[in-house]
Amino acid sequence: MMNMWQMVVSYIPDWQVFLQAIVILIVPIVIYVIANKLQSTMGSQISQNTKSENKSEENSARNNKDTEEAKANPFIMGNYEADLAVIKQRIGTNCDVHFREFMIGGTDKRAAVIYIEGLYDKDLIEFQVLEPLMIDDIEGIENSSGDTKMTKTNLMNKMLPVSQIRETLNLEEVVTEILMGSTALLVDGIAEVLLLGTAKGKSRSIEEPLSEGLLRGPREGFTEVLSDNTALLRRHGKNECLQLTKFEVGTRVKKDLVIAYVSDIANSDLVKEVQRRIESINMDYLAESGYVEQLIEDNSLSPFQQVQNTERPDRVISALLEGRVAILLDGSPFALIVPVTFSMLIQSPEDYYERWIPGSLLRILRYIATFFALFAPALYISFISFQPGLIPTKLVITIIEARQGVPFPSLIEALIMEIAIEILREAGVRLPKPIGPAMGIVGGLIIGDAAVNAGLVSPFLVIVVAVTAISSFAIPTYSAGITLRVLRFAAMFCAAMFGIYGTVLFFLLLSSHLVKLKSFGVPYLSPVTSYRFSDWKDFILRMPFRVMKQRPQMMKTKDSDRKK
C-alpha cells in the first residue's frame, strides 16, 4: 500500500510546475483587463473628438454654404463679381492659379484674366490681351442700345488679336480649361466667359527614340506633347484623308487622346470598334499610354501584347497606310497601333529602308533569335537530363566532362544563371546611362567566370545563357522581349519535368493559344492562320516593292491597292 502511494506521489509535479501554471493562467486575465480599460479610455476620447469634429463640421458647413450652392450650379451666372467669386472658390486656393483684375481702357468696365503659372504664354497675355484692353482707348464696346452680344462680338473680333478664342457658360469647362493652360477672361457686362488659347508649357525637344534605334532612317521620335505628336504625323503623312479624332479620358484627371487613321483606307468597323473601346474606358487617371493598352486589349490574361507601342512617327504612318489605327495620349511619347500581329513585333522599319535581300536576311535572323531566346535553356535541360542520346557522342562527352563537380541538377543550374542575367539586365536599365551598359557587361563576365570557377555551373551553360541573352536583345520590340523572357522560364520547367516531350508540349500549347488569340478581330498569327498568300510577301521574307502591290488582306481595307 505504501509503495502504491509513493508511486502516486512520484507522479505529482513539483510546486514550481503549479506556480508556472498559475502564472500562465493569470497573465491572459491581466492582459484582458488592461485591454478593456485602454479601450474604454480610447472610446471616451474618440467620443469627445467626434463631438468637437461635429461642431467644427457644423461651423464649416454654415461657412461654406454659399460655396456648395455655387458648386451645385454648373453654369456661369452672368454676374462679374459672383462668377469671379465662384471660380476663386473652386481653384483660387491653389498657389499656381493667378487672378489679374484690371479696368478696361476708356470705360468703367472691370475685367479679370485667370491663368496657371508655368502653363501660359506670358508675352501673349501681356501684349495681345492686357495691352489692347487696358492701354487702348476702346470705343464701341457697347452700342447705343446696350446689346451685350454686340459687346462680346466687338471684343472677340476687334479687340483681342488671339488666334484661339471661344465663349462658354459652363463652369466645369472653364475650370478644366484653366487647369489645362488656357486663360479665362471675365468682363463686367458680358455673360459668357472667354477662353483664350494661351497654353505654352516647357516640353522636351524632338529627339531620336531611345528604345528603337536604327542605323538608317528618320532620327525623330514622339514627345510628351500631344500637339507636337500630331504635327509629326501631319508632316510625315501629308494627306487630307488622315483623320485625327480627339477624345477626353480620365474621370478625375482629364487628358486628351487622339486616334489617327486614313479615312479612305481603314475599315470603318475597325475604327468604330477602337472608338467604342476608348469611350468605355472608366478610370480616374491615365498616366501613360500603357494604361490605354491594357484597358482596350482583347485578352488581358494572355502574355502576348495585342497592341503595339512605338516612338517612331514613320512606323505609325506606315501602319496607317496598311489600314491600321493609331492612338496617341497626351503626356506619353509612345503611340499605340492596332491591330497587331506577332510578325509585326519581329519586324523593324529598317527592313524597308534597306534593299530587300539584306532586309530579308535580317528578318530571318530575328526569327532565329526569337527561337533561341525562348527555347535555348529548355533544350539544354532536356538534352542534358533526359535525352543525351540525341546529342553527338563527342559533344556529350565534352559536356559531361565540363559538368564534373557541379552539385546542382541542370534545372537549378540554369535557373541560377538566368536569374543572375535578369537581375543584371534590370540593374543596367535602372542605373544611369553612362554606367548602365558597362555594369551589365562587366557584371555578367565576373559572375559567369566566378560561377564556373566555383563549380556552381558548367562552362557550356554559360555559353547557352549568353546566346539566349544576346538573342533576346535582337528583338526590335522591347515588350515582346519581356514576354519571351517570362515564357522562357515556363519552358524550362516543362523541360525539367518531361524532357524534350515537355518542350514540345509547351510549344504546342503556346501555338494553340496564339492560333486562338486575336487583336481587334485580326488573328494574331496572320498570315499563318487564315492563310492568305499575298500577305506572305511581307512575312518571313520582305519581297521587293514591285511585288508588294496590295495592302494586307487581313485588314480588309477600303482601298487594297498600294499602287495605282
UniProtKB/TrEMBL annotation:
The chain crosses the membrane at residues 15-35, 325-344, 364-386, 456-475, 487-510. Residues 52-68 have a biased composition (Basic and acidic residues). Residues 45-68 are annotated as: Disordered. Keywords: Membrane, Transmembrane, Transmembrane helix. The keyword DNA repair does not apply. Belongs to the GerABKA family. This is Membrane protein YndD. It comes from Paenibacillus segetis.
